[in-house]
Specification:
This protein is α+β, with helices and mostly antiparallel strands. It is built from one helix and ten strands; from the N terminus they run αββββββββββ. The longest helix is centred in the N-terminal third of the chain and has 25 residues.
């Protein structure tokens, strides 16, 4: 009888923990818009003007919208899992390898990517590491990033507010 009670108690605890983690992750869901007043974006860095995020279980689906500084918006869709598995897509003729993982310690999503662009000097890797933190109460999504290309590194923060 004790074993049954212990097993039942462990099952309730595990279900509660699963529900809590699921709720944390779902706090990222929605449409988010760039808040320039709170963001810190280095010069010559494409600006994440908005992002649509859907987290379902271990799946992360995003549609990002970037402004490269010329006033044109460039969207792309990316579907990843939160288990660190690498996925490959092509964005505007540039190959991109990405992986995402869930950080229990930070309550954050970590997204790492390498996008290869070619110019007159040959292929160049644009390496990005992002840490996403959602604050459901304040309806904000903060994406801290470090980008590296051709030996130059830049760090910044996109502050986004929920629009839906």
């Amino acid at each position: 009888m004790r074993k049954i009670m212990l097993f039942a108690l462990m099952a309730v605890f595990a279900a509660g923990l699963t529900f809590e983690l699921s709720a944390q992750r779902s706090g990222f869901n929605g449409k988010w818009k760039y808040d320039p007043a709170k963001s810190v974006v280095p010069e010559y860095t494409p600006v994440l003007t908005s992002i649509e995020v859907t987290v379902k279980g271990d799946s992360l689906l995003t549609q990002r919208f970037y402004d490269t500084g010329e006033g044109q918006i460039y969207p792309f869709v990316e579907n990843l899992t939160l288990d660190g598995k690498e996925y490959k897509i092509t964005i505007y003729d540039m190959p991109r390898k990405s992986k995402a993982s869930w950080s229990d310690a930070e309550g954050a999503i970590i997204v790492e990517s390498v996008t290869t662009a070619s110019d007159y000097s040959g292929p160049q890797d644009f390496i990005s590491k992002e840490t996403w933190k959602a604050d459901a109460q304040n309806k904000t999504l903060v994406i801290s990033f470090k980008n590296t290309m051709a030996g130059n590194a830049a760090e910044g923060v996109f502050h986004l507010v929920r629009v839906e």
